UniProtKB/TrEMBL annotation:
This is Cytochrome P450. Its main location: endoplasmic reticulum. Belongs to the cytochrome P450 family. GO terms for cellular component: endoplasmic reticulum membrane. It comes from Dendroctonus ponderosae (Mountain pine beetle). It comes from the Eukaryota.
């Protein structure tokens, strides 16, 4: 038990790197798991914990993660020494969720290089101009929806409103589907996207964290 859950939490201390006092198993993500902070607030809190240092330690569950704070060091890792830092950490095994594991940020090695080469053509200057026109159309629909209300004061829930706006942009730029999630709030594309990204329930959170912490076990259990 000590070797599995407690020893990894001293990784940065043994390396002489400043770190917080992480919780067993959940590491520095306990504030997010127990709804004390959002994930962004948790990362920001950890980033600002040790002012003046070039880097500090952070734990994603029991996985040591280095927070780079020095711009020059960050430039060295992402440009000059990029060949040594090409792969992202594999979050979900392809056998557990092949759809999630197939996107660019989840791929590694040769598969990542092949996918990056395939997608590079989609970001030429002409393609980006076309994407801008599509995004501009979604923005015009967004503005027109509220102008048509003809009200001096409009009360809205910002998270839901902008998630619908982002949904429309993703639909038109990535899938070639034109939707207006403000005018048609129950359109299938938005509802499915909301369902996929909704981790508000405890069961979904535990399932997601189980995949991250125990990928081999969840891989076996998914076969039953």
């Amino acid at each position: 038990m000590w070797f599995l859950f407690l020893k990894p939490m001293n990784h940065f201390t043994r390396m002489g790197v400043k770190q917080s006092t992480p919780w067993p198993i959940v590491g520095d993500l306990w504030t997010n798991i127990f709804w004390q902070m959002s994930l962004l607030e948790t990362i920001e809190f950890s980033y600002n914990m040790f002012p003046g240092v070039r880097y500090s330690g952070f734990y994603q569950f029991s996985i040591p993660t280095l927070i780079i704070k020095d711009p020059e060091l960050l430039k060295q890792l992402t440009i000059r020494d990029f060949d040594h830092f090409t792969d992202h950490r594999t979050l979900i095994d392809a056998d557990v969720d092949p759809l999630w594991a197939g996107h660019l940020f989840a791929l590694t090695g040769r598969k990542w290089k092949d996918m990056r080469a395939t997608l590079s053509g989609s970001f030429s200057s002409s393609k980006i101009k076309n994407l801008f026109n599509l995004m501009n159309g979604a923005a015009e629909n967004f503005v027109t929806f509220f102008l048509n209300k003809n009200e001096k004061l409009i009360v809205l829930e910002m998270r839901d409103t902008f998630s619908r706006f982002a949904n429309d942009i993703i639909a038109t730029t990535a899938f070639g589907i034109e939707v207006d999630s403000l005018k048609s709030p129950n359109n299938p594309f938005h509802l499915l996207g909301k369902r996929i990204t909704d981790y508000s329930s405890l069961v979904k959170r535990l399932r997601f964290f189980a995949i991250l912490i125990m990928p081999k076990l969840t891989k076996v259990s998914s076969q039953f």
